[in-house]
Amino acid sequence: MQRQPIEPPRRTRFIDIADKVVRAGRKIGAVAPARLEKDFLLEQAAEKTGLDDFGDPWFEKPFEVLLDSVKREARLNAAGDFSAMQQFQYVLESRLYAQMWFKQHLEILARPIRNPVVIVGPMRSGTTRLHRLLASDKRFAHMRSFETISPVPRPGFEDVLAGEKEDFRPKLAARIMKVARLANPRTLSIHPTGPYEPEEELGLLVASMWGMKHDAQWQVPSYSAWCAQESAVPAYRYMADLLRLIGWSQQESSLRPWILKTPQHMLDLPALLEVFPDARLIFTHRDPKQVVGSAASLAWNQTIIYSDHVDPDRMGQTWLDKTAEMIARMRAARDAIPPERMIDVHYDDMETDWRGTMERVYRFLEFDIEPALEPMQGFLDRSAKLKRHPHRYSLEEFGLSEGQVRERFADYVSTYGVATDREASETRRRMWK
């Protein structure tokens, strides 16, 4: 009997309906056609805000490349290009408002960012769990989900700081998350979150039209290839300025080290270390077959929202190659990092003994773990409620095999002792004690 091929899940009817509504609206003139043109989008943002300073113009080059790639390669449906327009307009408006705040409050850019703790690992390698465990410790500063969606406060935020008005951004984030779950309810199991949950700084790199968020959202291979040849230093400098703005908006002490993480750092370690020269690095590792399968599933579930033409086999190959590129660039960059500035954490060790693993991390950071244990346990209890269903995926649904992945990453697995069996985990813990 011939075995039926394993197929990844299709998108929800919500997107099909939204796509039809946008198409119908355009036919009758109720919805404007998408204009993915740089000059038009810049003009629209300036007209809406009444501002004209976008900051460092470096971002315009990746923006041009991204727009070109979206138009030529992404094959967006009507809902997809409508969403892209909204996303670009919001990012551009935020850049204008950021410059406004920098000019009005000179103390923002004077805020130091000392000794940040940066979690560096491929997508789906346990970076979110580690990030949120550390963020539960009030001795560290962290971003919240609504701040990566809307990092820049709007005019009148002084009234929020004075307690006279409510910040609109958490409510906006809640609405966006509700729509995202309607578009694809699997997002809740893939990446459980809420407006106030600790979140990564990927949105701060998107502010420079930079980063893997675009790869995981749209099919933009030429944009990805262009970024691989460019220095990310300007994007990271702007990210640092936005972190300063967020710290100011939180009224956060600049003495507290930031906890940062996003898989993009795997590709851009030299830029990260140039901008944050005193960063302490926590590298996460997980069996590549889980990383590749989970990353392909995450990207698939996002990309099918915006395009009617997504091939699962191509998606699998893309994230197999992307994961290999991330690991190769990470390995090359960390050769120049002093050993005392970095530590390795394995996903399976966190699964079997999270407390023992976190004790290692805290020794590395030279922090006493005792005050953090209760809030970390609180996070784990809350996380179990957020994640209602496990994230289910397989290599086969994306045209890959376990043998293919194991062969591709054999040297990485051997070099860093990456394993999935309990015996290997126990061996590592005995070595580290």
From TrEMBL:
Gene3D superfamilies: P-loop containing nucleotide triphosphate hydrolases
Annotated signal sequence range: none
Cross-referenced InterPro entries: P-loop_NTPase (IPR027417), Stf3_sulfotransferase (IPR052736)
The protein, known as: Sulfotransferase
Highest classification ranks of the organism: Bacteria, Pseudomonadati, Pseudomonadota, Alphaproteobacteria, Sphingomonadales
Source superkingdom: Bacteria
Pfam families: Sulfotransfer_3
